[in-house]
Design goal:
Blueprint lengths: L6 E5 L7 H8 L13 E6 L10 E3 L2 E11 L3 H19 L5 H16 L4 E11 L4 E4 L4 H15 L4 E3 L6 H10 L8 E11 L2 E9 L6 H6 L4 E10 L3 E6 L4 E6 L7 H4 L4 H26 L7
Antiparallel strand pairs: 1-6, 1-7, 2-4, 3-4, 4-5, 5-6, 8-9, 8-10, 10-11, 11-12
Helix pairs in contact: 2-3
Length: 302
């Protein structure tokens, strides 16, 4: 349940759905496993596996979850079967097989192999924060986030959101922090990781891991025409994360608060534990995300 990444979207209108009405809408697009002819399937599932509700509500926050099932069908396997069939057919008709015929063979191979392929599942979580006017997707992948938000929009009929873009260019502020020409706010501290990139050459990248970012050696890198496009940050000793120049959070870690001894929770109701953890996470996010938006000058006006 704990989010490892976060892509932020601003709700342009008031979110009108409560947990009950949202659950009813999500039921129209429940997840169902891939059929023998499907390469993938996508749909809503309960955030808590043992529960039936498709929405977990707590303290004004709404958590929903989607499941993606994909058949594993490597291109090399398709190519191997295609080559065998093309060779047999060429010998039979005594000519080269080209163009459209190859595409037809490929389609037939994919159709036959699809039903035999193994499947794997991944999950997308969305935290809706109506009071903060934010929608948070647990992913740093643009492709996954786009699929997830588009699917939610299709499910609800309409969803007016836009990516949160801060007024201040994150890369410029990151670089000032690293150079030491500007200090991070008192409630933020730089971590031990950053990525620098040449401003005029996207191929010129330097990655620093487990390094003291305040050291002269690391700071010197920011004076050679490179700007910081990703940096590790610790917030008020409760959360650590990596923030990039697109204002996407990754490697989120909940410091101390998420450290729970299994022996302390063995006799507790799993639903109660899930609810407590979800509430704790959402409350920390409700402080962190508005604060980070504030640090970067608020939301950029179009």
């Amino acid at each position: 349940m704990w989010f490892k990444a976060a892509s932020l979207y601003q709700l342009e209108n008031k979110f009108e759905h409560d947990a009950e009405s949202l659950h009813e809408l999500l039921q129209d697009k429940l997840f169902s496993p891939c059929s023998r002819r499907q390469l993938d399937s996508y749909g809503w599932v309960p955030p808590l596996e043992e529960a039936e509700l498709l929405v977990h509500a707590s303290s004004g926050f709404l958590l929903i979850k989607a499941r993606r099932e994909e058949r594993i069908l490597p291109g090399s396997v398709i190519a191997e079967h295609m080559a065998e069939r093309i060779q047999v057919l060429e010998q039979k008709v005594d000519r080269k097989i080209r163009g459209r015929e190859k595409l037809e063979i490929r389609d037939n191979v994919v159709m036959e192999l699809t039903g035999q392929a193994f499947t794997r599942s991944t999950y997308d979580q969305i935290l809706i924060m109506p009071t903060q006017g934010l929608l948070v997707v647990d992913s740093a992948s643009t492709k996954k986030v786009d699929q997830c938000t588009s699917f939610l929009r299709d499910t609800l009929g309409s969803l007016y959101v836009k990516p949160v873009q801060p007024a201040t260019d994150p890369a410029k502020l990151f670089t000032r922090w690293l150079k030491g020409t500007r200090k991070p706010p008192a409630d933020l501290a730089l971590g031990d990781e950053c990525v620098l990139q040449d401003e005029d050459n996207i191929a010129g990248i330097v990655r620093c891991n487990k390094q003291d970012l305040a050291s002269d050696e690391i700071r010197a890198l920011s004076t050679t025409g490179k700007q910081v496009i990703k940096i590790a940050i610790e917030s008020a000793e409760t959360l650590s994360f990596v923030l990039d120049n697109e204002f996407v959070f990754s490697k989120i870690k909940f410091l101390d608060t998420a450290e729970t001894d299994e022996s302390d929770t063995a006799d507790l109701d799993p639903a109660a534990i899930f609810d407590a953890n979800m509430t704790l996470m959402a409350l920390q996010f409700s402080t962190l995300f508005p604060r980070m938006i504030e640090v970067f000058g608020g939301v950029k006006e179009e």
